[in-house]
Recover the amino acids of this structure.
């Protein structure tokens, strides 16, 4: 492993000035450092910072250092936003969820095998300008939406998909002060610079994520389709949040995971739902357009059909036929 300096602080301002790579639960960063993919000169352990609470009246604010397990067990999340609890519980084995944090989950790096294997020369994300081995390689698990000639890797976070369906925002603090960015846009599509993955500026730290209050009761849920039931990333996932009032769908948020280079919002599916009355025919009609714009690779064309079926199934599970 590349030698590095380690520093630990309980003070947020001190952490922001430390000029190193933040270490939270360490479940992704340490793995990548061991593999030689990441080689920071300084690691700043932020586990002692006061970013652990879950608070809220109406909406919810979840501290960046809340663990995945704590968030999934929180009554306000389980009752108000099951889509979050279900996404978190689908993400990794319990040993990981007990230490992995909400902030680290959003910042985790792609599971593309070519990215994680330093013996592979071509990876624009790891070594800009070197090419993309996945475009013509084994790409069964890769993205079909939001890809570019430079990169076809999916973003692996289930939580990010669920948060996008709830129009959450990400609170940041940094050397130039605090700011808030919408989650939709926090993670960046690869374009020609796949090494730029998120909207964080140098030195910035995620302090919390915030779910806004919704004017009416939401039905929400997360469906994840994967090769195994445990410790497997999504082939396809669907996060859905519906507000149904008086038998009519007033708002609909539908976001897909496992298929996009970032959590993939499905605005045309949402448009087909809003103003309509739930029915089996409606779910099928809406899901029909879920894979619009998809550009499958050699081994992952199955994802387009799987996406449509997953969206339809999750809509039916939440919306019923009332
Ligand atoms: C076996 C296994 C299975 C998994 N399965 C899934 C899965 O199915 N779904 C899923 O979503 N995830 C899965 N994961 C990934 C896991 O959820 C992440 O490793 C974890 O959430 C990262 O959180 P962490 O606190 O350990 O982050 P760390 O490893 O400490 O950090 C990860 C990255 O985030 C940065 N970072 C951390 N906190 C902050 C912050 N507050 N502000 C700015 N930057 C920060 C670090 O600098 C680093 O770059 C799996 C992991 C393993 C090992």
């Amino acid at each position: 492993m590349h030698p590095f300096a380690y520093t630990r602080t309980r003070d947020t301002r001190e952490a922001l000035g430390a000029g190193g790579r933040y270490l939270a639960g360490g479940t992704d960063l340490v793995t990548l450092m061991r593999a030689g993919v990441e080689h920071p000169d300084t690691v700043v352990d932020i586990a002692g910072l006061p970013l652990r609470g879950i608070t809220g009246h109406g909406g919810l604010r979840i501290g960046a250092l809340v663990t995945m397990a704590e968030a999934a067990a929180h009554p306000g999340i389980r009752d108000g936003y099951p889509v979050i609890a279900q996404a978190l519980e689908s993400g990794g084995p319990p040993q990981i969820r007990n230490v992995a944090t909400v902030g680290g989950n959003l910042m985790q790096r792609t599971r593309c095998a070519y990215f994680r294997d330093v013996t592979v020369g071509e990876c624009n994300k790891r070594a800009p300008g070197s090419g993309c081995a996945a475009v013509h390689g084994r790409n069964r698990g890769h993205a079909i939406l939001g890809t570019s000639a430079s990169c076809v890797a999916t973003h692996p976070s289930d939580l990010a998909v669920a948060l996008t369906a709830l129009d959450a925002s990400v609170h940041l603090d940094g050397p130039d002060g605090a700011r808030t960015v919408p989650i939709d846009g926090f993670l960046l599509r690869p374009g020609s610079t796949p090494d730029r993955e998120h909207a964080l500026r140098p030195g910035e730290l995620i302090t919390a994520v915030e779910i806004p209050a919704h004017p009416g009761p939401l039905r929400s849920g997360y469906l994840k389709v994967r090769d195994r039931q445990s410790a497997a990333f999504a082939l396809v996932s669907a996060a859905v949040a519906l507000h149904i009032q008086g038998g009519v769908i007033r708002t609909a948020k539908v976001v897909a995971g496992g298929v996009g280079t970032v959590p993939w919002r499905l605005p045309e599916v949402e448009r087909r739902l809003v103003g309509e009355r739930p029915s089996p025919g409606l779910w099928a009609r809406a899901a029909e357009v879920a894979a619009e714009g998809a550009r499958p690779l050699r081994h992952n064309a199955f994802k387009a059909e799987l996406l449509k079926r997953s969206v339809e199934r999750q809509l039916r599970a939440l919306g019923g036929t009332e």
